[in-house]
Every structure is written in C-alpha cells, then in structure tokens.
Recover the amino acids of this structure.
C-alpha cells in the first residue's frame, strides 16, 4: 500500500502536533516493513527541516515530497476552495493522513486525519478568530472525505461526535505515546 502523510507541522519544532507527527512517522517506519510511505511537506521558508528529518529515517520504503507553499496558501487552496488533489504532488496513493491544519482533496486515496482536540469549536471566544475559521473549514472537509479519524482521547472522540455529528464508527481513539 502507498501511504501519504502530511508532515508539514514538523516545521513548528517543540509544538505538540509537530512532535506527534515526528514520533508517529518514526514509529511507523520502524515497525512497518510492507508499506511504502510518501511524506509530504509544505513550507515556503523551512523546507530544510523536512530534509533534515527525512535524513534520520529508514528510507528504503519512504520518499519525501516538499513544495514551497506557505500554510496560508494551502488553507485557501485546500480548506476554502478545495482544489488540487494531494496526488498531484505525491503521485498515486491508497491512503492519505492529513495534518491538523489542512485537508486536501483526494483523487483516489482514502482519507484519514487526527483530531487532537476540539478547543477551537468548543471555546471559540477563547481562540483566535483566524484559527477558529480555519478549523471550521478544514473539519467540514474532514467530515465529508475522511474514512477514518484518529482522536487523542475518549473526550476528543465524544466532542467530535457531538460538535461535528460524525458517527463513532469513523472514529478511533489512539493515545499519543510518551516521548522523553
């Protein structure tokens, strides 16, 4: 199987989501000996971060695709207008795991994503308006297109079911591992 993963969030080093993506990719490549991974990274100025990360990975079954597109453009392109399928950048995929910021259209791949929490929708008055708007747009596409959604906790799963009206069958709780 050809599995695409959006690693764009790793440019935000030291953040929870960036660390989560790094560790998940490292673990998948360490334990999975059957599938091929296409790691997709988008950043205008920080593409070197993707290459440095990729250099630390076992690359026998992995390929890195980077594009010089800033997150604001991807938000417009994918979350707002929902144009240009991810496969235009990565080639054919069976599965694409999106990040917590953008939801690209899929030509053929089955979509999956991780929802870490629903803070922006539960407490919009306490969250930057731009972040709330971005999450609303992205989550509307997630609801329509993702075959599976990973949730960090039972609480997040409950919030996703209530706030997005997504059936529990599409949700899997996968607790983030501890890193030292």
């Amino acid at each position: 199987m050809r599995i695409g993963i959006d690693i764009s969030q790793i440019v935000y080093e030291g953040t929870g989501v960036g660390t989560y993506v790094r560790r998940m990719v490292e673990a998948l490549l360490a334990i999975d000996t059957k599938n091929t991974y296409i790691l997709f990274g988008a950043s205008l100025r920080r593409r070197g971060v993707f290459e440095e990360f990729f250099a630390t990975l076992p690359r026998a079954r992995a390929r890195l695709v980077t594009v010089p597109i800033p997150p604001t453009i991807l938000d417009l392109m994918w979350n707002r207008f929902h144009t240009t399928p991810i496969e235009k950048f990565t080639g054919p995929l069976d599965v694409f795991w999106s990040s917590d910021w953008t939801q690209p259209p899929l030509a053929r791949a089955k979509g999956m994503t991780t929802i870490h929490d629903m803070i922006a929708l539960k407490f919009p008055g306490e969250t930057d308006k731009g972040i709330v708007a971005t999450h609303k747009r992205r989550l509307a596409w997630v609801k329509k297109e993702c075959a599976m959604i990973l949730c960090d906790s039972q609480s997040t799963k409950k919030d996703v079911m209530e706030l997005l009206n997504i059936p529990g069958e599409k949700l899997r709780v996968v607790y983030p591992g501890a890193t030292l």
Q: What stands out?
A: The first strand starts at residue 2 and ends at 6. The domain at 2-173 is CATH 3.40.50.2000 (Rossmann fold). Helices lie at 16-31, 47-55, 71-80, 87-90, 119-122, 129-145, 154-164.
